[in-house]
Amino acid sequence: MTISFDLDDTLIPGMKRFPTESQRFWHRLVSREKLRTGTLTLMKALREQDCKIYIYTTSLRSPAYIRWLFLSYGIRLDKIINKTVHDKTLSGGAGTVSKLPPAFDIDLHIDDSPGVAQEGVRLNFRTFIVEEQDADWVSNVLKTIKSLPL
Ligand SMILES: [Mg+2]
Predict the structure, then answer these.
(1) Most C-beta atoms within 10 A of its C-beta, which of 57, 98, 108, 140?
(2) What's the gap in Å between 13 CA and the centre of ligand 1?
């Protein structure tokens, strides 16, 4: 199973505020951006279930930067889709949809945006929307994954 994650306001605080993982020494050298508390636990659990972990962001952060940011926390990513990759893959259709997980064989996309959830309903892809205040988001994501048909 392939699971993708949005970055801004889902795993990295921006407009939304939530607790973040404690920083490690290496991390300070790579970035000032921090990951949401629970990210490490969740991604470890996904690895144990043989899930692939993708980042799907409409930001212009470079894939190399994103890869290093997660590696500094000890997390290996399978694929990074930024705005450039999204636009290239969808070519003509890229402007009409903010995210299209099925184009990258993603089974479940995790995001903070209700708009992405609406696109999922309209275009038939699965989403899990993380609420800003959801302290149980890790177990809620894992429950959702368990409920998916294989
Ligand atoms: Mg977002």
Answers:
(1) 57
(2) 9
For residue 30, pLDDT over 90 is answered with: no
Please give the distance, rounded to the nearest whole angstrom, from the Cα atom of residue 129 to the centre of ligand 1.
10
The domain made up of 2-146 is a member of CATH 3.40.50.300? no
Q: Which residue has the tokens 């392939």?
A: 2
**Mean pLDDT over residues 108-131, rounded?**
97
Q: In what order do the strands lie in the sheet with 2-5?
A: 79-81, 52-56, 2-5, 108-111, 127-129
